[in-house]
DNA sequence: GTCTATACGAAGATAGAC
DNA sequence: GTCTATCTTCGTATAGAC
């Protein structure tokens, strides 16, 4: 997420933050405007499609950020890749213990907007693909790598939910220990 | 969820359904009233605490339902318990592919309401405990059983998110295959 | 106990001045 | 291009008749 940038970029960044904390329905323009310092009329100037467009762009931007991080994951063997993955996402899940969450997951709720689900599906798919590629490069058979990558992304998203409820990283750490041990003992 | 019952029970049931599809902020009394057939004034008659109380009761009721199902899971060995778990939750996740979702997970978003997170945390904790007990009874060491149960609940919640985005059970089936194989090969 | 009617505020969306 | 002011709609919440 760009820390500097024009009004438009700041609005997208503020939308990502609002999505993580309050979801689509709970995100208000008032909040985005306040956090980005933009004026009310700027919304429909930069996003003619209104809330749906802003939300879709925010989810896509957040998805691309995470994808970039996953694609650059180090690790010469499967356990090393998984450990690197877990280490990379732990701080993100930690934000969920303080009311954060996954912005991409947030846009899947609501259900009436099919386009938003497509944006989220594309993001999740790109994450799985990137992680699967890293696992395959570390020696996991192609078919297994894809399934394992999807499983790890599911654990990540589930940990967001559980840790936000528990206000603790304990569920994440339990899942991390378990999956690491299972792969190591394979 | 009771299919018959008084006005109050029907309202709670309608709230669970609304929570699954639209989340807390997206759930409106208008929708709950329509689906339950209740009158507008019935809300504050039965739920003096307003929306917060109705939502909390709906999440708790849904949590108790799921807990009852998990506590009765069959299986003489670890793989059998996990298979029974996955078979039991598959139809629930299938509802997510058509816009559903987990009502308990839904109440964790928003963040400002600490009580709602506590309700969700209690529900998730009871699910993990019930599943962990079944795994322990099937021969998994106590400490491992608790971690594995939490991991399975995380996978369940993550699968809800991924399958709702993808409009497909494919992510769930991949994760189910993976975790089953990892436990079987242990 | 159940229902109708309504108050009050906040949301998204728009128009038009500068 | 940017900002101010405003419109309309829908939300929660309440009052009070039956």
Report the mean per-residue pLDDT of chain A as an integer: 96
CATH homologous superfamily of one domain in chain A - what is it? Tetracycline Repressor, domain 2
Give the termini separation of chain A: 37 Å
Looking at the overall shape, the CATH architecture of one domain in chain A is: Orthogonal Bundle
Secondary structural class of chain A: mainly alpha
So how many helices of chain A?
Answer: 9
| H/E series of chain A | HHHHHHHHH
Low-confidence stretches of chain A: none
Multimerization state:
homodimer
Using the alpha-carbon principal axes, give the shape of chain A: elongated
Main beta-sheet annotation of chain A: none
Strand content of chain A: under 5%
Q: What report would you give on this structure?
A:
- The structure is a homodimer of 186-residue chains.
- Chain A has 9 helices and no strands.
- Chain A is an all-alpha fold and 186 residues long.
- Chain A has a domain at 58-184: Tetracycline Repressor, domain 2 (Orthogonal Bundle), CATH 1.10.357.
- The first copy, chain A, is elongated, with a radius of gyration of 17 Å.
- The mean pLDDT of chain A is 96.
- The interface between A and B is large, with 53 and 53 residues.
- Chain A binds a DNA duplex (18 and 18 nucleotides) through residues 7, 28-30, 38-45, 50-51.
